[in-house]
Amino acid sequence: MSSFEPSSEMPRDGAGALEGGALLSVHLSVDYRNKPGVLRDVVFDIFPGEIFGLIGASGSGKSTIALAILRLLETRGGSVRGSVRLEGRELLTRGEKEMRDLRGRKIALVPQSPLSALNPALRLEAHLREAWRAHASSPWKEARGSVQQLLRRLELPADDAFLRRYPHQVSVGQAQRVLVAMAVLHRPALLIADEPTSALDTVAQHEFLDLLHGLNREFAMATLYISHDLVSVAAICGRVGVLMGGRLARCGPVETLIGAGGLSALAGRVAPNSLAIGDQPLAGRHGASGAAALLHGSE
Amino acid sequence: MRRAATAILGAILIVLLCADWIAPHGYQQQFRADAGAAPCRQYRLGTDALGRDRLSRLIYGGRVSMLLAPLAALLAVTLALLVGLIAGCMGGWWERAVVTAMDLCLSLPWLFLLLAVRAMLPLNASPAASIVVTFALLGLLGWAGPSRIVLAAVKRHLASDFVLAACSEGCPPWRIALVQVLPNLRPVAAAQFWVTAPAFLLTEANLGLLGLGVAEPAPSWGNLLRELENLSQVARNPWMAAPLVALVVVVSCFQLAISTGEIEA
Fold this sequence. Notes:
The complex is a heterodimer.
Chain A (H helix, E strand, L loop, with lengths): L23 E9 L2 E12 L4 E6 L5 H8 L8 E9 L2 E2 L5 H7 L4 E4 L3 H4 L6 H10 L6 H14 L6 H4 L8 H13 L5 E5 L7 H17 L3 E6 L2 H7 L2 E6 L2 E7 H7 L26 H12 L1
Parallel strand pairs in A: 3-8, 3-9, 6-7, 7-8
Antiparallel strand pairs in A: 1-2, 1-4, 4-5, 9-10
Chain B lengths: L1 H16 L1 H4 L31 H37 L1 H16 L2 H11 L6 H15 L2 H15 L2 H8 L4 H9 L4 H24 L11 H4 L6 H6 L5 H23 L1
């Protein structure tokens, strides 16, 4: 870790001025045993309450960043160098017990694939109960009511019959929302959503993004939104980082990057289906022109 | 096929459980006047050299073998689950130690080990003690094979997305082991049970044949096979082979039940 030197050419558009108040400051490099240099000097900050988008082609190391922040990359055979600071405190040097206390309580993850992220042998209630028990001492029976309320907020059926279901008995969209419920159960300061819409159909994607945006405002919860879908990133994110070839090629407010053609640098490397929702209202946050610019750049 | 096998096993189990009502005589009741009798109305499978009814001994012997072999298999699979789960979840030094112990255990001549341990116990042990000791030994020594499979399954589940998700929620390792991984081991444990139970049935038969299994006068399918040592007599009195037939039928049914079950799994 001591040999780590930040790259002087690292773009830090827009972030520098606000650095003092950053919720999360990331400056890391990642190596896998068989694949060194997966991420090199990736630097970005996330501020309280904002939605930060991280965009990049498949295999560019987006999910690696999510696991590195949570210090779970070791379980996947990766090693992290550099620094990850949450509210000014370094995470990479913390003990596993301290990290466990932070995971789910301060930083939560919505994994990429909803059906494989839910345990096939456990009922939905057991999933929620386990997530609850990880950080709460009050009995599940007492918490159950408020968790059911949260499920209703996430537009899920919250009745006993639904909670008794197994993951294979619910739709992908419902499974994804259960994962969101588990993630926001303890009102984390930072929610990491790792390609949460990749398994959803277009309509469900749209609804899910609305939900994520709503939760962000309601719980004042910063969100790291990882995606390869330009339109959804443009729709809900305030600032965006573009990951290319293991480096953060650009980072800054979404309007600036669209204007500068920064996002269109990824043109042709994004999934074609990501363009299908370009004309839908979810892109409204940055107006039709933003979405059009993205569409134009992707052709 | 699987249904037929399970039905046969079920029927045999019912007969064995109702032994007290179905068996015509007690297993140690001697009819000295009729020693070595051929099959007749009173003794359907004849009597042995001590004048005991073979059919009754077959039924009571089946009760010992068929109830205790699965119990021993349950013990072995439980141990395997415990060892595999702890080794897999702890990893590192623990896992290496357990894998070494497993390899060592699997490379030992199993039957010889059983014989040696059983032979160390007094030969004149009471029948009840010999039954318990024989099957406890089978259970205690049979953990290695199943735990290798369990360990592989534990490692697979630990690398799964749902365990990663549980880690990201801050769940402690012991809850991940017990709540996330253990319920997923049920199919593996069940398959191991169905493989181990008939193997123990056969091992008990081997031990019984050598006089180191269940002690007389308590019957088991193993010690009933001792009569078959005298081949010329068996050729003249083929009904003496009834315990062997019963054993083959039961083990075949177990195998049929597993093979179809594994394909489904």
